[in-house]
Amino acid sequence: MSHSLIDILSRADVLEFIQTHLNDDPVALVLQSKKIPDLPIREIAAQIQSRKKAQLKLPEWFANQEIIFPHGVSMEQCSSEETAKYKASLVEGKSLADLTGGFGIDLFYLSRQFKKANYIERSEELVALAKHNFGQLGKDNVSFFNQTAEEYLAEEKEPASLYFIDPARRDESNQKVFQIEDCTPDLNLIVPMLLERKAEVLIKLSPLLDIHLALEVLPNVKEVHIVSVKNDCKELLFRIVPNYSGPVNRIAANLTKDEMDVFEFSEAQENESPVFSQPLNFLYEPNASIMKAGGFNAVSNAYSVNKLHRNSHLYTSEKFVEDFPGRSFRIIDQTVLNKKKLKPFLPQGKANITVRNYPMTVKEIRKKTGINEGGEIYLFATTLMDGSLTVLVCKKVRS
Length: 399
What we know:
By secondary structure, this protein is an alpha/beta fold.
């Protein structure tokens, strides 16, 4: 976003128009642009569209009427307020360098933990936007550099305490990429340069990335944080510490409106065998972060819940486990996938269906049984420890 466009969008009449029409359809506004020749309606419509996304994703920034938001990829890929604050809770120190500044959400919250911070970004438009927004938010401990990460590091005079990297995960055709070697900047080149500076490194990567493969590529990783928001896995954070060569701890964090479920485990804990059993009184499904982290045995042992099958990743117990990190259900009955046998439990013909280690998809089950989505009953189609297929009829105890 150019300086001139930032100046235009910062005008009092433009800001007032945006607030007045915040709930209008941006497309409809563009179609009416000829009726309002004195205002840049297309740019205003883009701001309204981005502000609507920011209302839930970035409430603190949304509340400031003078903040200007990007649109397109920069708005889609930026961290949410919750995940940015989570990163900030992990670190502190004298100085911070964000080598991939972008829209600046992560740096804004991370910089609260440091005396000074440097924002490095190769896009001149994003640098201008970040300068404007940080000024509006009263952030005065950040310096701005319009350079690539490589250019900045080649000229850096004093190493930072922490380097943050959120590499671009799109190729030259703007298609998403998920492998480390496809990201920009090249972590295989950058990370060794940072370790030579004896600094810690925090890297944000796609939740679709294979954690095992990443650990084979990234050196000196001490922690992997798997971060979800309301059970939707959002990002992976790799914390690299100079000269560290010990075991990698995995921290599965699920952020909700009112609380944060955090489950930490080591590879040694995951290698400990769990207890298996047939379904008991209660059923548990781990949250998305634990599932992505691969803490299937560790969570079973930590909370004294039994696994139903090695590959089902569903758990059961005689007595209710209040603090299990995930969804909890009371098991009403155990049956098979048969329309007549399921009918007595579904007077409205509705159920929420989950498939775990079962040879049919949810769509196929609905087609076979005619069960519609919704209602208070939850059906778990899964495989038990003896290899038998079953359907567990449940009611939710806790989300």
